[in-house]
Amino acid sequence: xxxxxxxxxxxxxxxxxxxxxxxxxxxxxxxxxxxxxxxxxxxxxxxxxxxxxxxxxxxxxxxxxxxxxxxxxxxxxxxxxxxxxxxxxxxxxxxxxxxxxxxxxxxxxxxxxxxxxxxxxxxxxxxxxxxxxxxxxxxxxxxxxxxxxxxxxxxxxxxxxxxxxxxxxxxxxxxxxxxxxxxxxxxxxxxxxxxxxxxxxxxxxxxxxxxxxxxxxxxxxxxxxxxxxxxxxxxxxxxxxxxxxxxxxxxxxxxxxxxxxxxxxxxxxxxxxxxxxxxxxxxxxxxxxxxxxxxxxxxxxxxxxxxxxxxxxxxxxxxxxxxxxxxxxxxxxxxxxxxxxxxxxxxxxxxxxxxxxxxxxx
Length: 362
Ligand code: AHM
Ligand code: MG
Known about the structure:
Blueprint: E1 15-16, H1 26-35, H2 41-63, E2 74-75, E3 78-79, H3 90-104, E4 109-114, E5 121-122, E6 132-140, E7 151-159, E8 181-187, E9 191-196, E10 201-207, E11 212-218, E12 228-230, H4 241-252, E13 263-264, H5 270-280, E14 283-286, E15 299-300, H6 301-314, E16 318-320, E17 337-338, E18 340-343, H7 345-361
Parallel strand pairs: 4-6, 12-13, 12-14
Antiparallel strand pairs: 1-11, 2-3, 4-5, 6-7, 7-8, 8-9, 9-10, 10-11, 14-18, 15-17, 16-18
Bound molecules: 2,5-anhydro-1,6-di-O-phosphono-D-mannitol (AHM) and magnesium ion.
């Protein structure tokens, strides 16, 4: 029998909910969190609205070529380029619109910011404004859409410093420790929502027949040790010296200083790679390299690194830039980029040691 949610905090072990146990919908989970005083009604509504938008995106992604939504946005020479300087896919644009439209009118937000938009967007005057800020990458890994590989939506929730007023870009520039909720939705063989409101990281699977997210793992736990790493190896020659040394020792396997053989996986969809790490451990990294050094890294702090880092820390893992705890980075820009190392605690600490030793000797 399922444990009563209102009295027992989620046990901190990877606990798949087995068939036959009482099913706990996302709605029920959020109501129980509200009763326990960990979230308020507005934050509950916000998460429900994001989850509903993700269901709509899941339907669009799932239709694939039949929905006429594959390929680049814009036409021919007029390819649509976003603020990141990247060509937008039709599904990037559509997912962004779905999230904007769903979140505009509920009264729970002061503003939104998206990886696909130049600046943040305040809630229109026609609607009431609330006390939260929502940031999202509407469709991460979208270069994978056309080849039918998992993609996902990543989101982060902050408190609005001036709740109820027009949100400005600078209101969003809060460190990851200030997040009140974070999550992602992965559109893979099944659609899953992985969520934290600061009380563990929990996974919900979309039951397509009834149209609701049902808890399938309560209290995800990342094993501290791992033998699996995820990185785009084709960038090796562009990496900094400490990353070269770290991965060199991973590749040396049982003959090298690490004394064990490592396996490598790289989906090139951060959501899918992080989901694997939350499920069975590993380290994910997108380090600084000479191609992206001028921008600070490849992945975005506010839309990718911070929400994933909160989910990973809440599952017992660690997240770092290689030189600093990710969640303590003070953002200076909405679209700021950072190097990323996250996953199994001992491996993230090992990567940090290589950076610290290199920096000390330099
Ligand atoms: P995107 O937000 O434009 O999709 O870029 C982010 C993606 C991540 O999902 C993934 O980890 C990374 O870019 C892959 O980069 P690369 O193609 O260099 O391996
Ligand atoms: Mg992205």
